[in-house]
Design brief:
The protein is mainly alpha-helical. It has helices at 8-34, 42-78, 93-98, 106-116. It has 4 helices and no strands.
Length: 123
């Protein structure tokens, strides 16, 4: 059987990432809320709305990653970190270094993205 992975390194990285994402999320939401709606010019109002949408979109993206980071921390506690959620196989070390919150090995991530139509086909 597999030898247990030393997860301390990943736990520290994930906790740092969690802290950074929470702080960034708070800043983006606050910034979006603080953008003034008191514009008299319709063009300015349009720009203000776009800017607000941008900050809320950033916050939404950070929020999705934060949820995945917290799921990865839960897998560390459960002893399943580094195991692919599809077949329990080992997630590549290089992949975990790049994306420590990933629940999938590269093969299953690619299959999932292809099924969802997220990957850009190459010529």
């Amino acid at each position: 059987p597999n030898t247990p992975m030393n997860t301390e390194h990943y736990k520290r990285r994930l906790l740092d990432l969690e802290r950074d994402l929470v702080a960034r999320l708070d800043r983006n939401v606050d910034t979006a809320r603080d953008i003034s709606d008191d514009q008299t010019d319709v063009g300015d109002l349009s720009q203000t709305d776009e800017l607000k949408d941008e900050y809320f979109a950033l916050a939404q993206s950070d929020s999705a990653i934060l949820a995945q980071v917290r799921d990865a921390l839960a897998r560390i506690d459960a002893g399943t970190f580094g195991q692919c959620a599809v077949d329990g196989g080992e997630i590549e070390q290089q992949r975990l270094e790049a994306v420590p919150w990933t629940p999938f090995c590269l093969k299953h991530q690619q299959e999932l993205e292809e099924r969802l139509g997220l990957r850009t086909p190459s010529l």
